[in-house]
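Hello, quick one for you while I still have it in my head. Could you read through the record and tell me how the tokens relate to the sequence? No rush at all, and the record is pasted right below.
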Amino acid sequence: MTVQQAGVDGEALEVWIDQDLCTGDGICVQYAPEVFELDIDGLAYVKGPDDELLQATGATTPVPLPLLTDVVDSARECPGECIHVRRVSDKVEIHGPDAE
């Protein structure tokens, strides 16, 4: 069984966090604990579909369709402006600090 991916016009989306800008407020974890987690270093990271913390720099994870609003709200509310949501197909950011 596959999780339906979120997207604009059905396009798959992914999310990543720039830890250099992360303030460790944990707002993202409050909005979408299925996608984000604070690590022992106090910074937020994305989690893979298997719930594993992805600590590699620039690691991305798919945005599940049922959590799209929560992930977008996380990006909007993040005080560090470090959450980036982009299309998988062309890597264009649609939510976050670099969105047009």
